[in-house]
Amino acid sequence: MANFSFDIVSDYDKAEMNNVFDQAQREIANRYDFKGTPAELDWIDGDKAGLKVTGSGDWQIDAILDIVRKKLGTRGLSQKTLDVSKESITSNLKTTKLVPFIQGLDQDKAKKITNLIRTDYPKVKAQIQGEEVRVTSSSKDDLQAVMQLIKSKDFDFPTSFTNFR
Questions:
Q1: What pLDDT, on the 0 to 100 scale, is given for residue 66?
Q2: Nearest to residue 81, comparing CAs of 97, 61, 58, 65?
Q3: pLDDT of residue 1 exceeding 60
Q4: pTM for this structure?
Q5: Cβ atoms within 10 A of the Cβ of 92, count?
Q6: Cβ contacts of residue 40 below 8 Å, gap of 6+?
Q7: Cα(127)–Cα(3) distance, rounded to whole angstroms?
């Protein structure tokens, strides 16, 4: 009897995020209400782990984040990837907000997922392996049902599936 498996991870596609960044920068440069303002979008650091949003106030930061969210949606990425919980910093008539990307499942998030799978599908085995959850079963149908269950739940973090076997 064959065992099938897949992994549940909380990750984002870096190439797609790069495209979102480029498209958002182009739209910011072309918007008439941002002309002559410090409106800008940058990477936080060299490894592109988040965005640095600069504007003339919180209203402009929110407008830029709306542009980024719209671009994420059109490229099929989850908006839950953005961690907008940090406060804005205002100095010299500029407001800056750091928006890191959420990546990796911590223990609490992984336990939420495994408990959900165990209660709804007792025949399916779910194990926490570092920053991912490995789901195994002898039935592909059960695994597809688990994927639908995970997609249907509204977690406060992005989930994706990898390593299909």
A1: 93
A2: 65
A3: no
A4: 0.78
A5: 6
A6: 28, 53, 54, 55
A7: 14
Strands 94-100 and 50-55 turn out to be antiparallel
Q: Which H, E and C letters describe the chain, residue by residue?
A: CCCEEEEEECCCCHHHHHHHHHHHHHHHHHCHHHCCCCCEEEECCCCCCEEEEEECCHHHHHHHHHHHHHHHHHCCCCHHHECCCCCCEEECCEEEEEEEECCCCCHHHHHHHHHHHHHHCCCCEEEEECCEEEEEECCHHHHHHHHHHHHHCCCCCCCEEECCC
Q: Which residues of 57-78 are buried (b: 16+ CB within 10 A; e: fewer)?
A: eeebbebbbebbbebbeeeebb
- Note the pLDDT tens digit of each residue in 39-74: 889 898 777 888 999 988 888 999 999 999 999 989
Amino acid at position 28, single letter:
I
Q: Within 13 A of 52's CA, how many CA atoms are on the CB side?
A: 10
Going from the C-alpha of 152 to that of each of 44, 147, 158, the distances in angstroms are 32, 9, 12
pLDDT tens for 99-143 read 888 887 888 888 888 888 888 888 888 888 888 888 888 888 888
Q: Are 164 and 9 in contact (CB under 8 A)?
A: no
pLDDT band at 86 (very low <50, low <70, confident <90, very high): confident
